[in-house]
Write a structure and sequence with these properties.
Strand content: under 5%
Number of helices: 10
Distance between the termini: 22 Å
Largest sheet: none
Length: 208
């Protein structure tokens, strides 16, 4: 897809929603510059986060680790930072707040898998967890997973980049935002990762 055209189309869409845009923001990376994740990687990551998010509800850490290992998610689908959090006796309030947005990342991953829709004006679906085999063997779910066309993921990646600029500007300047900064950041991180901007989830940069 022509990235300049994509940028212009998303800017036009945001203007129609009366959301301020920054015309000086560049285009996102093209497909030749990224390494998109496979459907299995995305499905595995989504399932893994479903257990990691248990930390914010004070779930038993040993039980979470046991299930992640049992379902072969621990090795490649849990980040190094998450592994450290799962092994410490108590996570900090800062980390707990960070992880409280993980359901929004799951919503974005579920969208990439064609399981849900994305409405950036609302929080994640109340029944989001029903889309995943938590507490069960996820192997069939992972094997049968399919991603939306990469062009759709690319378009959403570009849109979230521009929405993130808007929400950060509102936060920085104390203006009322039509969108929640935490929602946009969590979803952008997930979709940037799927699009392949960074291989490592922990290293996804959210520059605007």
């Amino acid at each position: 897809m022509d990235l300049v055209k994509l940028k212009e189309e998303n800017e036009k869409y945001l203007v129609s929603l009366q959301i301020e845009t920054n015309l000086n923001l560049p285009t996102i990376e093209g497909l030749s510059e990224v390494k998109p994740k496979s459907s299995r990687q995305v499905a595995s990551r989504a399932c893994a986060i479903g257990y990691v998010v248990g930390l914010i509800y004070d779930a038993d850490r040993e039980d979470l680790i046991e299930q992640l290992e049992q379902y072969q998610l621990w090795g490649k689908s849990v980040t190094s930072a998450e592994k450290r959090s799962l092994k410490v006796e108590q996570i900090s309030d800062k980390v707990k707040n960070e992880y409280s947005w993980l359901p929004e990342s799951i919503q974005a991953l579920a969208w990439c898998l064609g399981l849900v829709e994305l409405d950036h004006f609302n929080y994640c679906d109340e029944d989001l967890a029903d889309n995943f085999p938590l507490g069960k063997d996820p192997s069939n779910f992972i094997k049968s997973a399919e991603l939306r066309p990469i062009e759709e993921i690319q378009r959403e990646c570009d849109l979230l980049y521009r929405l993130h600029w808007y929400t950060k500007k509102c936060y920085r300047e104390g203006d009322v935002s039509k969108l929640d900064l935490g929602v946009i950041e969590a979803r952008r991180k997930a979709i940037d990762w799927v699009y392949g901007v960074e291989d490592n989830w922990d290293e996804v940069q959210l520059d605007t």
